[in-house]
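Exam revision sheet. Question 4 asks you to relate a sequence to its structure. Input first:
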Amino acid sequence: MSELPGGAVTLLFTDIEGSTRLLKQLREQWGTVLADHRTLLRESFARHHGHEVDTQGDAFFVAFPHARDAILAAVDAQRALAEHEWPDGTDVRVRMGIHTGQAAVADRGYLGLSVHRAARIGAAAHGGQVLVSQTAVSLLENEEEELPEIRLHDLGPQLLKDLERSVRLYQVEAPGLRRDFPTVRTAARSRRRWWALAAAAAALASVAMVAAILANGGGTATTVAPNSVAVIDPAKNAVTGQVPVGVQPNAVAYGSR
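Answer key, structure tokens:
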């Protein structure tokens, strides 16, 4: 490993989106795809003074002395990936996250919150997307003439997993790169997915509870339609209504009534 830059460094994290799916799809060709992906990215990093800190599977951790170099390397790498001829028409998409901050050089890499923040930014991106933190963007104010084809699209503050404060993110846009992506993968989206699962569990629990009440009540059976939430009057120990929720629950509300 070459000597790593110290102090305020710009960190880049990358990984292949859907690598498990590609592995199952390509089988014995996956090794070739992974090797080509590594070659293309390493060539791009080297052209822009990148220092490879770590590589695990299909992921890279790279450090750059300047934010400009990291962004140019990411754009260069995304173009190389898009232009490469992959086997069986496979679309190999790599997500990338860039952040600048103070990081202490350790024996085999870096230590500090900046490393975790950069990793979370990379995880928030989609395949083919490059996300950059506000801190890194602020260092480019006097270097815009060196990035004539690159535009930084403001995505606003984003709350990322395991980070207490939101991070303002920018999407790198340049010729040869995709522009249209879903909403970034934030902690809020993870919570929404959790609530959707909780709603589905609540609906199933309601059905089970209705069955138990009817089984023990000894009264006339009441049928609740599939994909519905039952309304139960505890005073009467009976089902008094039902709310259809479609194919799957989307949200659950609760209150005194």
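Marking note for examiners. The longest strand covers residues 94-106.
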